[in-house]
Amino acid sequence: MSDAEADSKRWGKPAQVVGLQAAISVTVAALALMWSFDEAKAALLGGMVACLPNAYFAWAIARAERRSRRYANAEPEQAVWAAGKLLGQWATKTVMMAALLVLAIVFAKPAALAFICGFGAALLTQLGAPLLWRRERVRGP
Q: What are the boundaries of each domain within the chain?
């Protein structure tokens, strides 16, 4: 098994989605480079504003998944606690994204259309990514 395959197994689909988001962000920035360098920077900034919080959340999901294997036969209270913690991490991701949006707009003052295109492409990638991977079928007894 190669290092890439081992990382894929360790981090799972969420990390692959973040990687795809980053690739799409770079692609949108490369397309925006046809207009100007400032447009390309704005598109890349918009994509990274969407990717960075999702990278945090992918990391949090991978950690939670590793922990859940250890507590496979845990009490129901621990499962509720884990779900609450995951919800808190999702809220952290959402606050991070909002804060990054504000910081990027206030301090970087990016070109609006390119920034929105980069940000939107990254978010749409997140929504469309499940269509790219085959779903593993669960076999019955």
A: 9-131
Q: Cα–Cα distance between 8 and 14 in angstroms, integer?
A: 10
What the block records as the tokens of 34 is 């046809």
**CB-based contact 41:104 (threshold 8 Å):** no
Structure tokens at 19: 């990687």
Residue 46 and residue 119 in contact, taking contact as beta carbons nearer than 8 Å:
yes
Tokens of 14: 């969420």
- Is residue 44 within 8 Å of 69, Cβ to Cβ? no
**What is the rounded distance in angstroms from the CA atom of residue 128 to the CA atom of residue 124?**
6
Distance CA 102, CA 104 (A): 6
pTM of the model: 0.78
Residues 6+ apart with CB under 8 A from 61: 12, 14, 86, 89
User: Do the Cβ atoms of 17 and 107 come closer than 8 Å?
Assistant: no
pLDDT band for position 28 (cuts 50, 70, 90): very high
